[in-house]
Write a structure and sequence with these properties.
Strand content: 5-15%
Oligomer: single chain
Number of domains: 2
Distance between the termini: 102 Å
Helix content: over 70%
Structural class: mainly alpha
Shape: elongated
């Protein structure tokens, strides 16, 4: 086997290996693209469901008006050893 034949065989093997690598890379890339598209559609669906199910800050603030005493009691309470609720800080106006 001469040097030219050896080089020809080596180059053809490298070409085949490069072709196989390119095919595998393309296959991986298309699968990754499909997974990203699936994830993105799930993400957008989740955001749409959250928008429908949860309220926004402005609506919550409007709902919260007049309920400050209730929120203070909820946020400043504790439980004794029997599980009874104990208000830890007396809210203003009570």
């Amino acid at each position: 086997m001469t040097g030219q034949e050896f080089n020809a065989i080596l180059l053809s093997l490298l070409g085949i290996a490069a072709l196989v690598g390119a095919i595998l890379f393309w296959r991986m890339f298309t699968r990754m693209e499909k997974k990203i598209d699936d994830w993105f559609s799930l993400h957008l669906g989740c955001r749409e469901r959250q928008f429908k199910e949860f309220t926004n800050k402005k609506e919550f603030d409007e709902w919260k008006k007049g309920r400050d005493l209730l929120w203070r009691r909820i946020n400043r309470h504790a439980h004794d050893k029997d599980g009874k609720v104990v208000i830890t800080e007396s809210p203003e106006g009570v």
